[in-house]
Specification:
Radius of gyration: 29 Å
Organism: Chryseobacterium elymi
Structural class: mainly alpha
Strand order of the largest sheet: 2-1-3
Number of strands: 3
Family: Belongs to the Skp family.
Oligomer: single chain
GO cellular component, one term: cytosol
Low-confidence stretches: 6-11, 13-20, 146-152
Number of helices: 5
Number of domains: 1
GO biological process, one term: protein stabilization
Keywords: Coiled coil, Signal
Strand content: 5-15%
Shape: rod-shaped
Order of helices and strands: HEHHHEEH
Mean pLDDT: 83
Helix content: over 70%
Distance between the termini: 60 Å
Length: about 170
């Protein structure tokens, strides 16, 4: 019975090794490919410009609110309690407006990123799929992913870049 168990274990090992060898595995440096794509460079530039505009708008509103707050603080001793209460309510309203501006800017930025990077991601995924089929790869893993445990397979980065027409 013991010999049968050892024989069975040996057969399982041989089958496992042959199955593992039958699978073609490749890695690709996704960030390297993405950063080399001209479309991504343009999208990054557009998004940075968009973000700069939104941050400037928020800064302008924040600076105006800060100046008004300092003015109100300086004038507070000379004003009535009702006037100071009204000014506090006005400052709270300004703070709420600034917070809403920030939230809207964040949502707008996310929407702009989705629109800009969607076609780039699709193009990259299509190129990876085409390279995988052309070279018989069963798996292509991101070489930078923390989940990568084995990186001795072929590297498809050059083939994907060639497919995309970039260096």
């Amino acid at each position: 019975m013991k010999k049968l168990s050892v024989l069975f274990a040996a057969v399982i090992m041989v089958v496992s090794v042959s199955m593992a060898k039958a699978q073609k595995l490749a890695t690709v440096d996704l960030m390297g490919v993405l950063n080399a794509m001209p479309e991504k460079k343009k999208a990054d530039t557009d998004i940075k410009a968009f973000l700069d505009v939104k941050q400037a708008e928020i800064k302008k509103k924040t600076d105006a609110a800060q100046a008004k707050f300092q003015q109100y603080q300086a004038e507070a001793p000379k004003k009535t309690a009702d006037e100071n209460t009204a000014r506090e309510a006005e400052m709270k309203k300004l703070g709420d407006e600034i917070q809403q501006m920030q939230e809207k800017a964040q949502k707008d930025l996310q929407a702009k990123q989705d629109v800009a990077f969607g076609p780039i991601e699709k193009k990259l995924n299509d190129a990876i799929e085409k390279v995988a089929k052309a070279n018989g790869y069963e798996f292509i893993m991101d070489a930078n992913a923390g989940a990568l445990v084995y990186k001795a397979g072929a590297d498809a980065t050059a083939a994907v870049k060639k497919e995309l027409g970039i260096n």
